[in-house]
Amino acid sequence: MRVTFLGTSGAIPTTQRNTSGIFCNRDGDYLLFDCGEGTQRQMMHYGTGFAVDHLFVTHLHGDHVLGIPGLLQTFDFNDRERPVAIHTPAGTRGNVKQLIEANGTTPSYPVRINEVSAGDTVLDRPEYEVRAIATEHRCASVGYVLAEDDRKGEFDRERAEEELGIPPGPKYSKLHRGEAIEHDGRTVEPEEVVGPPRPGRTMVYTGDTLPTNNVVAESEGADLLVHDATFAEDRRERAEATAHSTAKEAAEVARDAGVRTLALTHISTRYAGQADKLGAEAREVFDGEVVVAEDGMERHVQFPE
User: Catalytic annotation on 63?
Assistant: First the structure.
């Protein structure tokens, strides 16, 4: 699972940071979370490619959606035929449709706009799912959790071969799939040579939000939490008034949820050249890894063990 930060600025772009966009390559499935203005150029610049079939929108503020018309037009110029799905908070489908059609044209390929609410499983795949979670902003908003299924337990080849006398071959595969086998006059159950299921990976993307207990609960044990960190502590009142989080508040969410890595994003333009201040404030309360996201940064989300 590779996460590429396409845009990490809050509200407006700067010379160093584009507006919000996160690209996730989950073993060949290409997922885009938010699409601020200029996202398509960022995708070219950082080499993610355009093979995106699902766009997950957290809310309809311009710095999260103004790149959608341009991206869809680029798809058209590239002779796209397969559908693209845009997932957007409940009640906003009409606004997204108007945004897409603002220049008087419609894409030549199917564009499916899917309204989602907190708790919905937005994308259900054999090995993972993306679900919407409740966030708290100044408009209809959701965050997203990409959660992989548990993986098979580790296969104890030494026990299978040396203790049970099972030679390498198809029987190993059957046992690892959870099927019992017959060997040497007895039934060998999978749990004799296969350990307990191992957790998959989890990424959480909040979009813009106040710190909430719900995000803590939904982020429990996550491998990567990408959280709104628009302001430093000296602007906490401003953060509350605009329904954003400070870096310290994001870190408190990460600490309470027990996540492995916290990525701070949606950085206010007032911290141009000073974003390390946000990282320092977050590290005061969270002992895990803290990164201040920058455009072009890649994070390879590793398995928990």
Answer: yes
